[in-house]
Amino acid sequence: MSHASASPSCECLIADLLRVRRSLTLEQVVTLLPELSWNQVFKTIDDLSRRGEIVLLRRGYDYEVEWMPARSRSFSYAG
Predict the structure, then answer these.
(1) Where are the beta strands (DSSP E) in 1-79?
(2) What angle do CA 14, 27, 5 make, to 5 degrees?
(3) d(CA 41, CA 14)
(4) Mean pLDDT throughout 16-31?
């Protein structure tokens, strides 16, 4: 069964993890959430990144995921 967007439960798991850890590599997220497949983690991180809820940075061969606090997000689109 395929969904157009990441499931809310995946988003909650990843968001909760990033609120605590603040910054993790993509591989660390996969390791710390064994109940999710790599594809679920990647899709959820992609969705959260596109919405501006997290920041996805390339670090050499790795990708780092950083939590973006809500107050920072609310000002990111003000012009």
Answers:
(1) 23-25, 54-59, 62-67
(2) 45
(3) 8
(4) 93
Residue-level pLDDT at 7: 76
Q: Which residues of 28-57 are buried (b: 16+ CB within 10 A; e: fewer)?
A: ebbeebeebeeebbbbbbebbbeeebbeee
Domains for the chain: give ranges and CATH numbers. 8-70 (1.10.10.10)
In this prediction the pTM is: 0.76
Continuous H helices in 2-37: 8-21, 26-32
Q: What is the pLDDT of residues 32-79, one digit of tens each?
A: 999 999 999 999 999 999 999 999 999 888 899 999 876 665 544 443
Q: Give the CA diameter of the chain.
A: 41
d(C-alpha 49, C-alpha 29), whole Å = 14
Element (H, E) at 37: none
- Measured CA to CA, the distance from residue 26 to residue 78 in angstroms comes to 29
